[in-house]
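Fig. S4 source data, part A: sequence.
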Amino acid sequence: MDEKTWHRRTQVPLMLASLLYLVAYSWRVIGDLTGPAHLVMTIIILATWALFIVDYLVRLSLAKNRSKWFRTHLGTLAIALIPVFRLVLLLQALTRVPGLRPSAGTRLRTQIMVYGAGAGILFIYIASLAVLEAERRSPDSNIHTFFEAVWWSCVTITTTGYGDYYPVTAEGRLVSVGLMFGGIALSGIITATLASWVLERVARNHDDAEPATRGQMRQLMAKVEALAAPDSGEGDERRE
């Protein structure tokens, strides 16, 4: 079995495992479970997380060029570390507009915008759960409810930082660091995508000044050769 076959066969099971991970983690934190219920949810979380780690290692071992596969599948590594990110792939339907055939650049920008927004929402949700679980039992904490945790996540990921809520535990501050860096990365990607779209709109009616790409030159040469081929054949017939 090759890497592509393995990936195709495990897509649906891993999507369900990602959803189960999210439900179990949400239930454990928001429900503030204790005792056997907490243990059951923790086992489900660890079991589903292990599935993603195993999937990543298997795909890496099946890849023909492992170093290249690792470099080109950093998103897969992110999903293995944070399994709920796989749910972002469910937004693929939103990147396709029926009846339209967008260019490759437009299609890529649409995917970046949709997936970026989905990843940002999931990132905020998971960070809120993580910081609430870390902070709620600390005597010095000021984050005690899920609403307060979501508010803290929103102002942190946008680097606003009002300071009305903040983590005091080591685990909470570690979540804060990850959320800040993740927010900067997501905002940078989305901003660059919007800038690219604006530049394309501005240059749409001024394409005479744009340099031709190699692909366009190859297409032009192919058309020239196709037009020249019949002429050369007629010339040979006349000489005969």
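Fig. S4 source data, part B ends here. The chain has two domains: 1-88, 96-226.
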